[in-house]
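pipeline: protein-struct stage 2 | run 1193 | Septin-type G domain-containing protein
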Amino acid sequence: MEERGDKESVIMGDEQVDEGKNHEHQNIQTSRSEKGQREEEHVEPEEIGKEKGMGIEETKKESELEAEVQLELRQSAPSFQTGFIRGTDLFGYVGIEAVLDQMRRKTMKAGFEFNIMVVGQSGLGKSTLVNTLFKSKVSRKSCTPDYEEKISKTVKLHTVSHVIEEKGVKMKLTVIDTPGFGDQINNENCWEPIVKYINEQYEKYLREELNINRKRRIPDSRVHCCIYFLPATGHRLRPIDLEFMKRLGKIVSIVPVIAKADTLTVEERQEFKERIRKDLTSNGIHVYPQREYDEDPEERVLNDRIRESIPFAVVGTDKEHQVNGNKVLGRKTKWGIIEVENVAHCEFANLRDLLIRSHLQDLKDVTHNIHYESYRVRRLNESNMNFSELVLSSWPLKNGTDTCETESQL
């Protein structure tokens, strides 16, 4: 009996010990959980604050957008009741976003036009640069058999058109060349044929727009961009450069470039660019992209970077060379190969991105909404004519422009 009592007491002691251990373990777990809760309580306010901040920002953006839309609706239809429905308020998927695919399909079927003018004196590599931009033989020299370089006595404009197709997208590219510009001893008023040509294209578009039976799609021959080539002198802008950009900057988007920039050192190039920017500012010359046309802060940041790089120091070539086992476009010299698409060597890639990859549509929009609109208002105000008189008007449309249209699937 005593043995059994001893055994029972031992067992009871063990159980008490186990209960004590369990109690200690529970205490440790509860303390840990309390610490965890404290940490969570400490962290949660920060996360909640961030989420609240994000929510407040989104709500602000949505409220601003709603206010803008409501303002536009009130201005367009002041007598109608207007409202703004957010995506979260919809009962289900409507499919409004599918309109982007529809627009893409229509654009790919119809294609689009892009007209680019190159201006500069002979020998600055205008034709080569255009070929390099579109990686094909699109310049006047390239498409003219048995071409001979002759200095023209007057400025004559030549247009060459190509249809370029890439990944199902068709673009009718028109390159307008200006041989004879700046090549004479007396270059007085050498910009007049160029101004006349640009205005003639606006006039053609205006006539088509005001016809009673308009075409479903008006052919667009307006100049969307003018690349102005500056010789790499390393000094300042010449009087002819200033006068040209002053006159044409009001009617077309000008993008100035330093031609054959490989003739300057990196330091000379940077100093030359700074002098050019100072000359443009002091003479009140506005080149593309203009600061007043920036639509939002994001676009302003992108355009500010471009404005800091203008004028672009470029090198053009259509010849390929082997560099580290890869074929690259470049100019071979005694000291090595100048890679055209290498940003460390020149700024051709920046120019290409501006003209084609990032701002092509914006160039067309600025041409239509700013330059053409200014011309249209001026013409209608000074003429004071009705639609029929404008169609029958005898506005001269011929200035000896030679056209050589070729279609190529490139």
